[in-house]
Design goal:
single chain, 117 residues, mainly alpha, Serine Threonine Protein Phosphatase 5, Tetratricopeptide repeat, 0% strand
């Protein structure tokens, strides 16, 4: 099991969120990347929510920069860390839709979601 976040790591994560909300994409991207690099390989389930969110947020920045392939990679990593993270599925789907790859997106989702009546 991994180690919980240090106060410094949480400070980096929280600051990245604040910068993203303020529209400071470059600075936010740098901090999200720093946070992710320190957490890669963590198996501590208490840490996975923040790590998944960091990947999703960094993916959003890449989406805004029209770096679609890299954004999809980040969204996919967010989903692998938290398979119930609906926002990451939506974000990844938006890119596939924009690129005309909706059938590829649908193949991701059919196995991951089932509707029960």
């Amino acid at each position: 099991m991994g180690v919980a976040y240090s106060p410094r790591e949480m400070e980096v994560y929280e600051r990245a969120k604040q910068l993203l909300e303020a529209g400071q994409l470059k600075s936010s991207f740098k901090l999200y990347s720093e946070f992710i690099s320190h957490q890669k390989g963590s198996t501590d389930s208490s840490c996975l929510a923040e790590l998944s969110d960091a990947y999703n947020s960094r993916g959003h920045i890449r989406y805004l920069w029209v770096e679609f392939d890299e954004a999809v990679e980040d969204y996919t990593e967010a989903i692998s860390l938290d398979p119930k993270f609906a926002v990451a599925y939506y974000n990844r789907g938006q890119i596939h839709y924009r690129l005309g790859k909706i059938m590829q997106h649908n193949s991701y989702c059919t196995d991951e979601f089932t509707v029960k009546c």
